[in-house]
Structure formats: structure tokens, C-alpha cells
Design brief:
The protein is α/β, with parallel strands linked by helices. The protein has helices spanning 3-8, 17-24, 86-104, 125-142, 161-168, 185-192, 202-209, 211-216, 228-239, 257-270, 278-285, and strands at 31-33, 58-65, 68-75, 110-115, 148-152, 171-175, 222-224. A seven-stranded mixed sheet has the order 1-2-3-4-5-6-7, with helices on both faces. α3 runs parallel beside α4 (125-142).
């Protein structure tokens, strides 16, 4: 890639959540719902000495993508690590429910979720977990009618219960800078020790949970450069696809649980005593041809 090409690109990773949502929607169609001036702040953060944010770190916008009705939900990783609590989670689950209702009423609304999150907000504990469970249900409901596309760009990645939400999407788009895992590196190191997982070893972490590895092992569907135009084009292509069949061998990953159970069983029987490396993961999960 030459220098001129690099300089002409606009980084998607460096955009705020609101700017990412605007970049995906057709020009002039962005309309934010439950925005910062509606005052939907978390009632719990101030009690613990944390300054709340007007939109609770979640941007929900309706508009169009290539002329088709769409809703984009973007999580702001710069606010509380993109963690989800009662308000932010309700904004996403509510948007998914309304999109499903649109489809039942003859309006083919698609959905895009921009993940940039460490999962549940610790200050809100069970309330956040309940919200994330509602997001899971909303994705499964909506994807029967229209594609639900997930995007993980960076810099926070996607972890915790929201990694399950990403896995439930009809299709998942990742960049090289993305990371996807059920538990974050610091959590694994804290619970299992630095010998199991060194959270400061960046090559090791990206080698196991980075976007390129997740794409290679089939846990993500599209691998894109950090370029706003490219991300937008890939998302536009995916939301134009028909709903993903379910159940089917080529359907959502959540319907392929037998395959993943077999992968885990093979690993436990063969190499569970050894720390996995990227090559081992590709061997057990299978590598994209």
C-alpha cells in the first residue's frame, strides 16, 4: 500500500461513536433518538463519584443505508470503557425491538451495532446484565426479518456479554485493530495468573483475539482495513443481503453450536494442558481458505 493511499484514508477507529453512525448512514438521513439533550443519564454513576454522560455512552440513530431504512447503534468506548448499564443497554434493546416491530408492520428496517465495549458496567452489575440479555433477545428476534450487522473496529474491542451479542449478529465485520473475546486480557490475568495470560503482551493478545485471527477462524465474516469508506461499503453490502437462514449449516454461528462443541472437545482431548497459541487455535477451529 503506497503512502498516497494511506494519506487519503479516513480512520474509522479514530471516529467517535456519533461520527461512526453518521458515516454509515446516507448523507442527510441521520436522526438521533434518545440523544444527549434528552437527559437519559445513568442514575447510578453519580452515587459512586462518576460523572454521567448525557447519552450514557450509546448513540442510536435512524436513517437510511443505500436508500433502505436502517438503525445504527454505536457504543462510545471513550466513556467508561464502553461499558453498558441500565440506560445504554435499554437504548440498544429498545432500538432492536422497534426495528423488529417496523418489519412486522411492513417497514424493512435493518440494524447495525458498532461494538466498542468491555461488557457490563460494574457499577450497575445486574441491571447491566439484564440489559445485555435483552439485547441478545432483540438481535435474535430482528435477524429473522433483516440482517443485524455487527462491527468491531477498535480501540476497546468487544468483551463480556456483548461478545455474545456480536456472535449472535447475522454477520460480523472486524478490522486488524479489533479484538473479540468473552473475557478481557486483564480479567484473565487477574483470575488465572500472568503465566496463563499476560495482559501486557500485545502481540500475543492480538494473535489470539485480534480481528485477523477471528476472521481466519470463521468467528468474523468480513475483514476490512481501518478506512471509513471501506467499512461503510462492506456494511452497505451486508445489510442488503436477505435474512440469514436458521437453522442451517451456513446460518448464524449460534446455530452451529454442535461444531463448536466438537472443536472444544478435540482441544480438551489433545492440547488442554498447553497454553494455546494462534496456530493451535486455527488448527482446532479450522482456518478460512
Amino acid at each position: 500500500m503506497n503512502r498516497a493511499t494511506l494519506l487519503s484514508r479516513e480512520s474509522f477507529v479514530e471516529l467517535t461513536a456519533r461520527a461512526r453512525a453518521q458515516a454509515l448512514l446516507d448523507p442527510g438521513t441521520f436522526r438521533e433518538l434518545a440523544g444527549p439533550f434528552d437527559g437519559l443519564t445513568s442514575p447510578w454513576l453519580a452515587r459512586q463519584g462518576v460523572v454521567p454522560q448525557g447519552d450514557d455512552g450509546v448513540v442510536v440513530a435512524k436513517g437510511r443505508i443505500d436508500g433502505q431504512p436502517a438503525v445504527v447503534m454505536a457504543i462510545e468506548g471513550a466513556f467508561q470503557g464502553g461499558s453498558l448499564g441500565e440506560v445504554g443497554g435499554a437504548k440498544i434493546s429498545g432500538a432492536l425491538e422497534l426495528a423488529a416491530d417496523d418489519n412486522r408492520n411492513g417497514v424493512p428496517t435493518r440494524a447495525v451495532i458498532l461494538f466498542e465495549t468491555g461488557g457490563v458496567r460494574l457499577q450497575e452489575a445486574n441491571l447491566g446484565l439484564a440489559s445485555i440479555a435483552e439485547i441478545h433477545a432483540g438481535i435474535v428476534d430482528l435477524r429473522r426479518y433483516q440482517p443485524v450487522i455487527g462491527v468491531i473496529a477498535g480501540q476497546v474491542g468487544c468483551f463480556g456479554g456483548m461478545s455474545i451479542a456480536a456472535a449472535l449478529c447475522s454477520a460480523l465485520v472486524v478490522t486488524r485493530e479489533a479484538r473479540l473475546g468473552l473475557n478481557g486480557p486483564a480479567v484473565i490475568e487477574q483470575e488465572a495468573g500472568i503465566g496463563e495470560y499476560d495482559s501486557r503482551d500485545r502481540p500475543f493478545i492480538w494473535g489470539l483475539t485480534g480481528g485477523e485471527q477471528r476472521f481466519a477462524t470463521g468467528l468474523a465474516d468480513r475483514f476490512v482495513d481501518d478506512d471509513t469508506a471501506e467499512v461503510r461499503n462492506v456494511v452497505a453490502d451486508l445489510v442488503a443481503q436477505p435474512p440469514t437462514p436458521t437453522p442451517a449449516a451456513d446460518g448464524p454461528r449460534s446455530e452451529q453450536y454442535v461444531h463448536y462443541q466438537q472443536c472444544i472437545a478435540a482441544y480438551v482431548a489433545g492440547d488442554a494442558a498447553h497454553q494455546p497459541d494462534p496456530a493451535m487455535v486455527r488448527r482446532y477451529l479450522g482456518e478460512r481458505k
